[in-house]
Amino acid sequence: MERASRIQNENHKTFVKSRWIPGWVDEVEYGKFGRAQVTVTLFGGMDQSLYADFKKGQKAMLASSENTLKHWAGGTAGTAQMASKGILLEVSKTQEKVLLGSSGIQVSLETNLVTEGFRPGKVIRIRPESWPLLQVPREEYIHHNRDGIDIRFPTPDIFPEIK
């Protein structure tokens, strides 16, 4: 059981690193010419080694996500192409009681590109530079023209009528 647990934990860490860790935007301080400082709280429930990879002064990438945690992509661009790059200005962990689903870890990123998804309360995905930069399979992100509501959530009309 210990071996199976260890293998499953390693698989989960690899998966999170390839899909980026989710969080939500707490605050955005707008600067000049599209620059901003975005403060994010990372979601809880991940292995502590994943949180430890976020270090002050390190480069990172931040991308919009859906509340379902699906990556959002504009056109045919993937997550990495739509992500904002920046430097982690601050990484802190609250010692107070945290909300359910929260890690209590906040990171602040200085970025030169603010997208629509970087608003307080919105869900994002973030990766430190030390994680591998992999292309997310297209089935895992939402493409508004290709993945219409009827395709993503088909009606009972897809089943043939039995007579």
Low-confidence stretches: none
Structural class: alpha+beta
Name of the CATH first level: Mainly Beta
CATH topology: Elongation Factor Tu (Ef-tu), domain 3
Whole-number total of structural domains:
1
Q: What's the architecture, going by CATH?
A: Beta Barrel
Helix content bin = 10-25%
Q: How many helices does DSSP assign?
A: 4
> Given the C-alpha coordinates, what overall shape results?
globular
Number of strands: 8
Order of strands, widest sheet: 1-2-6-5-3-7
Q: H/E element string?
A: HEEHEEHEEEEH
Radius of gyration equals 18 Å
Give the topology:
Blueprint: H1 2-19, E1 21-30, E2 36-43, H2 48-52, E3 59-64, E4 71-72, H3 79-82, E5 84-93, E6 102-111, E7 123-128, E8 141-142, H4 149-152
Parallel strand pairs: 4-8
Antiparallel strand pairs: 1-2, 1-7, 2-6, 3-5, 3-7, 5-6
Question: Would you give an account of this structure?
Answer:
- It is a single chain.
- This protein has 163 residues and is an alpha+beta fold.
- The chain has one domain (20-149): Elongation Factor Tu (Ef-tu), domain 3 (Beta Barrel).
- Helix content is 19%, strand content 33%.
- The protein has four helices and eight strands; from the N terminus they run H-E-E-H-E-E-H-E-E-E-E-H.
- It has helices spanning 2-19, 48-52, 79-82, 149-152, and strands spanning 21-30, 36-43, 59-64, 71-72, 84-93, 102-111, 123-128, 141-142.
- The strands form two sheets. It has a six-stranded antiparallel barrel. A two-stranded parallel sheet has the order 4-8.
- A hairpin with an 8-residue loop joins strand 5 and strand 6.
- The protein is globular, with a radius of gyration of 18 Å.
- The termini are far apart.
- The relative contact order is 0.23.
- The model has no long low-confidence stretch (mean pLDDT 84).
